[in-house]
């Protein structure tokens, strides 16, 4: 699922031989067109930080989870990082391949998002608690296991994983 058709097309390319076995849906993560209690798991990566209303997204994700279902959200506290500062990144880093004006535009948009003002993943735990999650696990060591070297896709903002389990009814 993605908001844009272009990203769904990229997902199809990345899926290779499995693309025919996957259902692709274009929709807003904060307003899902699925019935209540449809899924056993919801997985998100690098999404909540750029949503206009991430708490609404968490509520939606919990709504579509079955009782006992699991939410896995991988994200980072991107609001604490200046995207335009690439001084500590390798020359071949993806951010160095983007025009400065576009990077500044991204930074300006990010600063307008309310989630950029909060410490994460602490904010996520509070938001998920308000959404009905009763069991949590947090892993703040994701980056150390993924980024063993600073390469073109190295992420200077440490990734975290939040796992929430929807309570049984």
Can you tell me about this structure?
- The protein folds into two domains: 1-28, no CATH class; 31-166, Vaccinia Virus protein VP39 (Rossmann fold, 3-Layer(aba) Sandwich).
- It starts with a helix and ends with a strand.
- With 169 residues, it is of the alpha+beta class.
- It has helices at 5-15, 54-64, 100-112, 122-130, 142-146, and strands at residues 39-45, 65-76, 133-139, 159-166.
- The mean pLDDT is 92.
- The chain has five helices and four strands.
Can you identify the CATH class of the largest domain? Alpha Beta
- CATH fold description of the largest domain: Rossmann fold
Shape category: globular
**What Rg is obtained from the alpha carbons, in whole angstroms?**
17 Å
Strand content: 15-25%
Helix content: 25-40%
| Spatial strand order of the main sheet | 1-2-4-3
Task: Name the CATH homologous superfamily of the largest domain.
Answer: Vaccinia Virus protein VP39
Number of domains: 2
CATH architecture of the largest domain: 3-Layer(aba) Sandwich
Contiguous helical run count: 5
Terminal-residue CA separation: 27 Å
Number of E-state strands? 4
Q: Tell me the structural class.
A: alpha+beta
Detail the topology: elements first, then pairings.
Layout (H helix, E strand, L loop, with lengths): L4 H11 L23 E7 L8 H11 E12 L23 H13 L9 H9 L2 E7 L2 H5 L12 E8 L3
Parallel strand pairs: 1-2
Antiparallel strand pairs: 2-4, 3-4
């Amino acid at each position: 699922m993605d908001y844009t058709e272009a990203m769904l097309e990229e997902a199809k390319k990345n899926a290779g031989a499995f693309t025919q076995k996957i259902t692709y849906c274009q929709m807003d993560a904060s307003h899902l067109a699925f019935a209540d209690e449809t899924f056993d798991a919801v997985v998100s990566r690098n999404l909540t930080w750029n949503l206009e209303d991430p708490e609404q997204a968490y509520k939606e994700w919990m709504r579509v989870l079955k009782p006992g279902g699991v939410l896995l959200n991988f994200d980072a506290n991107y609001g604490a990082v200046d995207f335009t500062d690439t001084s500590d990144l390798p020359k071949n880093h993806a951010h160095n391949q983007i025009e400065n004006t576009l990077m500044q535009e991204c930074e300006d948009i990010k600063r307008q998002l309310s989630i950029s003002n909060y410490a994460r993943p602490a904010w996520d735990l509070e938001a998920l608690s308000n959404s009905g999650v009763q069991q949590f696990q947090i892993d703040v060591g994701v980056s150390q296991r993924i980024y063993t070297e600073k390469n073109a896709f190295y992420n200077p903002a440490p990734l975290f994983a939040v796992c929430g389990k929807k309570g049984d009814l």
